[in-house]
Amino acid sequence: MLDLAKSRFSRMAICITIALVGGIIAAALNIPLPYMLGAIAASMAAAMIGIPVERPSMTIVTPMRVTLGVLLGSTITPELLDRIGAVAGTIAAVPLFVIAAAVIGTLYYERVAGYSREEAYFCALPGGLHIMTLYAEERGIDIRRVALAHSLRITFVVILTTIVTSTVVDLPTVSVESATVHIYELTLKDAAVLTAIGLVGWLLGRATGLAGAFMVVPMLCTAIANILGLVSARPPIELVIAAQTILGANIGARFIGEKISVLTKAMRHAFGHVSLMLCLAASFAFALNQVFNVPLLTGMLSFAPGGMSEIGLIALALGLDVGFVATVQLCRLMSINLFGPIVYRQISALLRSKP
Q1: Are 340 and 95 in contact (CB under 8 A)?
Q2: Residue 329: its pLDDT value, please?
Q3: Quick check: 66 and 201 in contact, CB under 8 A?
Q4: 52-62 pLDDT tens trace
Q5: Those residues with Cβ within 8 angstroms of residue 316's Cβ, 6 or more apart along the chain or in another chain
Q6: Closest CA to 175 of 329, 36, 324
Q7: CB atoms within 10 A of CB 25
Q8: What is the distance between the alpha carbons of residues 352 and 221, in angstroms, rounded to a whole number?
Q9: What's the CA gap between 165 and 170, in Å, rounded?
Q10: Which residues of the chain have pLDDT under 50?
Q11: Dmax of the chain from CA atoms?
Q12: Other Cβ atoms closer than 10 A to 354
């Protein structure tokens, strides 16, 4: 048992080291969000070519999600309340987006990828990886195929969204690391307050069981403390880099053990699916811009079907309204978790008459 534990620890250490090297190289090449994208690319490549790596355990990943929650929460200001009408209008559009994404994605995976109706639906619905695989398992669906589809969706959304928003759109990016301080510049008081907020957020998040709770609840706690003037500091650069690296490794190393032929085919279908979903997100962003004057990029990221932590980091790096984006993202995940099976029955009825 001890040898097995050492072996697992070694594989995780190798994975994180490779991810960090990937991040350093990406930073040297001035790639946006380098420590996350570089970590994803490096750990994914390592997993695909057979290097003995293993995804970081939740014991490591969870504190990193809490760290990012505290970081993102520290950027939320009372100005968000001034835009409550736009926030409410955007949230009202979330169910429409989820239904449209489910219909389009189901048709794509069924007609293009050749999946069964149930497989297509649970691969297409832009929810959390764990809840989607749980729903699939309850229905006797191949959860490996569903898990692979969602892992690739999250990966491609992060990569494509970052590239498009930072290169195609003429908007200067703000380095996530430049938005905070080095660890040696943090006072003991600020360090203690941030640690206490993170700990409270972690405990409350564990108690709520909400989707993305280990990021969302610390973010809310920090936002409240920030608005009340209890804290003005942010997590140090070194911790933010560590969080990006570990979360990137957690995404990239999901593809361990996949055959290249299977992975290549799944990547092709996932790329097509994500492209459709981002076009759909852009359409909703344009409509909300016209009706509620929501900035296009803010609307785009609000509906981008990726992970909350990753999308929040992209919003922060672009200097967008993190609170706005995170609120809409949370509503998307919660609506899918609550109504996913119900939407499936409605879509099945809608498509039943089609060949």
Answers
A1: no
A2: 92
A3: yes
A4: 999 999 899 99
A5: 71, 72, 75, 174, 176, 179, 322
A6: 36
A7: 14
A8: 46
A9: 8
A10: 1-2, 4-5, 355
A11: 66
A12: 8
